[in-house]
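Key idea: predict the complex, not the pieces.
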Amino acid sequence: MSHVDGRRHFVWGVVGALCVATRVHAQGAPPAAHEDTAFDVMNVLSDHGLHDLDHENWNLYGQTTYISSWHPSFAAPYTNANGSVNSLLPAPEWSFTDSFTVFLAVRLWPGAEAYFVPEVISERAFSGLHGIGGAIQNFELQKTGSVTPQVYMSRAYIRQNIDLGGKLIEHTSQPTQLGRKVKSRRLVLTLGNFSVLDFFDRSSVAWDPRQTFFNMAFMTYASWDFNADARGYTWGGIAELDWDEWSMRIARTASPQNPNVLPIDFRIWEYYGDQVELQHDHVLFGQPGAVRLLGYRNNVNAGRFADAINTFAHDPTKNAAGCAAAGLYNYGSGNVTAPDLCWVRKENDKIGLGINIEQHVTKDLGVFARWMTSDGQTEVDAYNPADRSFAFGATMKGGLWRRPFDVAGTGVALSWISSIHAQYLAMGGVDGFVGDGHLRQGAEGVVEGFYSFNLFKALWLSADYQFMWNPGFNQDRGPLHIFGVRAHAEF
Amino acid sequence: MPSSKLAALAFVAVVTIAPRAVAQQAEGYLVERFYPSAPGAGWFVMDALDTRGTFGGAVSLTTGYAYNPLRVGTGASEIRVVSDDAFAGVGMAATYDRFRFYINIVKPLVIDGQSGTFGGYTYTGPAVDLGTHPDTLSDTGFGFDARIYGDPRGPLRLGAGAQVFVPNGQPSDYDTDGRVRGMLRFLVAGDVRWFTYAGHVGVHIRPRDDSPTPGGVLGSELLFGAAVGARIPVGHEPLAVIVGPELWGESAFEAFFQSGATGLEALMTARLESTRAEGPQFRVKLGMGGGLVPELGTPEWRMVIGVEMFGSMPKNKPRSP
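Result:
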């Protein structure tokens, strides 16, 4: 198979033969940009005979993405009631992110590769990234972001590939992937600093949020509280076993020192996140598809909702407003009538189980559905506060209307919280993202539609619309409309 | 109250309270004095000026530790403001013939130190480690070097280089000045049989000037340095070990070569490298040494390890169809 064919297979999500390649992409790895016609560094070098894309010892890619979102005013009978601080503000708001990433890969010795990915981001979130649960409108938003650009190391890791036989499959040159042939049966060990999403739940239908859905609810399971620092990255190790159409991967990763903060606790045998994923790739009616089962268990420093409620019931002085005076890590609520998780944080477990099914209906059209349930007893530690989530949707390439690099998509995402989580919020409690002071529990939902218009092979301009209801799992607030635009370039 | 008692109380108040009241907070700055050379440049700080071929590139990984790079005061009043400084750096370079563009990215691993007051200034020791700063990067350097005269393996090579450092990180962590910096250097290098040498002299354009803060940045500086080594072939493979000292320093123009404004540091270095003229090559290097004049951020001792992979397309190679 030539690298040209391999790339096209990747672009259209031929999961069966190229499943391994698709899932090792970085979060920002775009498939369409690296067609032979794309204007990127490696293709230019290859075109001039200065680089061999099929047997790479190194590669270098980059991307930049600007996303702007705006929502008009929406109905809200109350906002930040009784000193709570986590409401989405009902007045019109503008949010943006602007990111720039460089992906460097180097072969070290046979089977070993090193990856280094510096990144810079500037951002402004709606309401300080408060008030939305599982459906944050822009997947690039980070908890520690600011308008002032911040440079940081997003990934730095080593991968060791151990071939175990089988047929040869081609890995195309991509961000965080060297172009080369590997065996279909192999063990891959990864160690270092990465995003769990670089390796787990790699969808070939809703593949890259920088080209497809804007909303975070479509990036992965909204209720998967995977270990990460406040930017979305962590440290740890991953073992992946690929055996033809079957794959299994397990990971242990470090957790944040406190929920939703940047500092990482490296006591990885004490506080950790474990995840296991089993994947099967198939071909149905001539089109590729995949089924993935994912389970996780976090053992982290976090608070249980029931413990916070009981503590407040026995001693009302242990309320949300008292956390700061007691020197406890908290989210700044001034509500003296509400319980708070700050009083009860300790080593706690959180578990969840999910399934992701994706299927290509035609060469250009793919559909997907994700469902996950977590135990719902413990606060959000790293991702978002949803306890159960379901999302489905479709993406379509523009081959039908002779714009093969354009992408259109639509999807629906729903997320729920547990009854004890709802009770805690209804009493005025807050977690890392939500808490209006009151709550009339409801499923937070979003419908999204987007169109990405390709210009010059390596530049996409996108328009996006999202309709969101029950923001923060609160039926009393919303619905709201969110309009977005995106400019994305790859090189 | 008798006036004598009032006077005594006033005296005590002046003696005990006044000094604290006037102590100013000393700002942090980039304390690291190890300015790594461009990826593929051979030496740790100097530049071998031996880029060749047509299109090529280099990647480097450098990690090091410095002990006590910033101390203020002496004797019992000494404060080790930065006592431990460990970093890891990644560099990438693109080369063409005699020209090199590169980027150096440095990640602080540990920056630790003591807090205290000296000379009317309060110093807050940094507390940086991978846990508290899992993804922090310090200043990123973008550079350009050119060999102006001489062959890649000739006895005399002359060149020039420029770097711009974009600030990143927090001055309070002593990993950045918080301002854009620049360097202009004239470079010299050469090889005569087994003997190899390199040197530089230049200017570090540094807008920060914290004088008269003891131990603080004193503005722009003169840079100087030299390295000499012996090239020893290894076995029958195209490998060689280069052993020799590398010395570099800086002096702030504000107090040119005066005490407290000049640092001088030396490393004993050894590196194993392939000696092929073309194709993929590697280099592993180790350096240990310390401050000959341990001031202005120069540590008491330092250890550095580096790995470089580099290569270039040979001249006159036909292009692939």
